[in-house]
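Translate sequence into C-alpha cells.
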Amino acid sequence: MAKSFDKEPFPSLRLVRANRESPDINGKFVLYWMTAARRTTWNFALERAVALAQEFHKPLFIVETLNSEQRWCSDRHHAFVLSGMADNKKFCEARDLRYYPFVESQRGETMELIEALAAHSCALVADDFPVKPFTQDATHVAQRIGVSMERVDSNGLLPMRATDRPFPTAYSFRRFLQKTLPDHLLNLPKAKPLARIKLPRLRGLPAEIRRNWPPTPSKLLSADTSALSRLPIDHNVVPARLVGGPSAAGKLLKQFLRRKLAAYPESRNHPDADGTSGLSPYLHLGHISAHEIFVELAKMQKWSPTDLSEKATGKREGWWGMSQASETFLDQLVTWRELGFNMCFNAKDYDKFDSLSDWAKKTLAEHESDRREYIYSSEELEQGRTHDRIWNAAQTQLVREGMLHNYMRMLWGKKILQWSAGPAEALETMIELNNKYALDGQDPNSYSGIFWILGRYDRPWGPERPIFGKIRYMSSDNTARKLKLHQYLDSFAPE
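Result follows.
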C-alpha cells in the first residue's frame, strides 16, 4: 500500500493567494499561522510553510492563536483547544522548532500580533477554513500586511476548490466524489512534514513582539481555572471531561478502529452501545486529519486505490472496495463531512434561513401558523425543561459533555422545530445551543446537521404534517421503539 501512496507535487487546488503582495526575501522567517489545522502532522499548510522556508533558506516560525472575544468563546472551548496547544508546544520544543502559542485577552490582539510578525517575515501561510470568523480574520490580515499571504486547505480528502457549486443532496455529492476523488487520493499531505528537515534556527524575536503580545504561559496552557477566569470568555460553559489535542485524538482513533469499527453499522445509532467514533470535536479543531484517519483505516483493511470501483453510482456502499463497516464509516467521514465544507465554501449564506431549498422554505411557510401543542422558550430548552424525557436527555448530554449522540442530534433538532413559534426561530435556537455547548460547534459539518433538520440535503416527505409540512418528521415515541436508550436516559434524564 505504501507504494500506492507515493507523494505527488503539492496540490495547486489546496493553495490560494490571499493577497497580491510578493515574498520578502530579506524577511527573518517564514510564518505559519495555525488556526484550523491545529496539528504538526498530516497538515498541508504546515507542509507548504516548510517548503517555503527551505526555498528561502529561512527559519520556520509557527504561531498558533486562540481568539477570546468572538461569540461563543467559553471555558469549555478554550480548555479543549489549549490541550492541543500544549501538545504542539511539547512536540516543537523537543525538536528545537520555534512555536509561539498565543491566547488573546482583548479583542484584536491576534490580528495585531499576526500583522506585527508578518512585517518581519518572508511570507505568511495560513489555514483555509470556510466558516465566517476564520475567513473574516484571514481576509482582514491579508489586506493589511506587506508580504505574500497564502491560505492552504487541509480540511478533507477532496480539495474544497475541486468544485465551484454547492451540491443539493448527499447522493449528488457522493456521485461527484466517486468520479473526482480518485485523482486526489494519491496526493496526501506528508505524515511528518517536520521530520528530517534542515532549516536555519531562529535565534530570537524582536523585543516588541514578546513585550506587546507575550506567549501564553504554561499555567493557561494547562487550562488552569484561575488563568481561564481572567479571559473575556463565557465562564458558565465549563470544560467538558473530554481532553483535546492531537495525542488524545490519535488514541481515540486507535480505540475506534480496534474495538468499535466492526460493529459500527449496527451500533452507531444506539446511544447505549457507544458505537460512534467520537472524533468529531478533534476533526473540527484540527487535532486530527481526515487523511490520517483514512490512511489508518486503509492500512487495517489492506486496501489500495486499485480496489476502487470504476462506476460512480452514488451509492453509499460498494465503491470503496472495503468492508461494509468501513464504507459506512467513510460515508460519514468523507461524504457527509465534506458535503458541509462544500456548502460553507460555495454558499456565503450557508448559516441563513434563506439558504434552504425553495421547497423547504415553501412548506415551512405554509405551516408556520399551525397550532403547536407546546412552545418552549429558549431558556426552557437550554435548561432541558420540557415534557419529553428523551429530548431532555439529549440536551443534558450537550450541556454536560459538549457532545450530542449522532442520532439524538437529529431528534433534538426536529423537536426544537416542533416546539418553536416558527422555523426561523427554531434555526436560531439550534445554532445558539449547538455553538455554545458543542465542542464541534461552528463546524461545516454541524451546520449541515442543523440545516438538515429543516430540509437541506433532503427531499419532500409525505404525508404532509402540521408544523413540518413536507419536512421529514421524527418522534420521541418512535425513537424509543427503535433505539437502545435505557442507560442513556438513566445517565442524562433519570426519573
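Note: The CA atoms of residues 294 and 488 lie 30 Å apart.
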